[in-house]
């Protein structure tokens, strides 16, 4: 291997200035996302000790300029720590939120199909969730349909949603 070959190999392994900037911005954005998390969510993230206090301080700062500088500082600190566990935990948390939202939408759709009188939906729901009481569910569906016809509050529809939701969680 010649000196030029070694030099070319070293250059290909080094990151460009724009790549380093992109990575710094990503770390700063991750830091900003961490600052926006609730206390409960933040406790699930494996934060190194040197990031705990700066994140807590950033949450208390109200001035825009001060907050921006604190977020930049958090991004700088994050360059010195292993961010993969932090990023992985944050991504898993976000995925969990999306999954819960999707389940919620599916349950609402199922409830709406039941209330709208879709005949096949009742049999599908009962076969999917055998623990459901058929008589209770059909009674609630009829009540929800009456409530809708009379323009009353949808209390039975809420009960149907709750029954379906509990079955999905169990």
What report would you give on this structure?
The chain is built from nine helices and no strands. By secondary structure, the chain is mostly helical. The longest helix is centred in the middle third of the chain and has 32 residues, at 84-115. It starts with a helix and ends with a helix.
Element layout with pairings:
Blueprint: H1 3-13, H2 17-36, H3 39-43, H4 49-60, H5 64-78, H6 84-115, H7 119-128, H8 134-149, H9 155-169
Helix pairs in contact: 2-4, 2-5, 4-5, 6-9, 8-9
Structural class: mainly alpha
Q: Could you describe the largest sheet, including whether it forms a barrel?
A: none
Round the Cα radius of gyration to an integer and report it: 26 Å
Low-confidence stretches: none
**Total beta strands:** 0
Note the gap between the termini.
64 Å
Count of helix runs: 9
Q: Kindly estimate the percentage of residues that lie in beta strands according to DSSP.
A: under 5%
What share of residues is helical? over 70%
> Average pLDDT across residues?
84
Shape: elongated
Quickly describe the structure.
The protein is an all-alpha fold and 170 residues long. It contains 9 helices and no strands.
């Amino acid at each position: 291997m010649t000196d030029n070959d070694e030099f070319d190999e070293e250059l290909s392994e080094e990151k460009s200035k724009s790549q380093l900037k992109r990575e710094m911005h990503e770390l700063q954005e991750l830091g900003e996302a961490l600052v926006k998390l609730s206390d409960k969510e933040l406790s699930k993230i494996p934060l190194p000790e040197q990031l705990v206090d700066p994140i807590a301080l950033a949450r208390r700062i109200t001035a825009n300029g001060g907050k921006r500088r604190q977020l930049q500082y958090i991004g700088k600190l994050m360059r010195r720590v292993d961010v993969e566990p932090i990023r992985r935990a944050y991504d898993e948390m976000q995925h969990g939120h999306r999954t819960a939202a999707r389940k919620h939408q599916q349950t609402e759709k199922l409830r709406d199909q039941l209330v709208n009188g879709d005949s096949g939906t009742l049999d599908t729901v009962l076969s999917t969730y055998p623990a459901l009481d058929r008589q209770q569910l059909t009674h609630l569906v009829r009540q929800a349909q009456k409530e809708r016809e009379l323009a009353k509050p949808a209390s039975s529809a809420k009960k149907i949603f709750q029954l379906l939701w509990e079955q999905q969680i169990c």
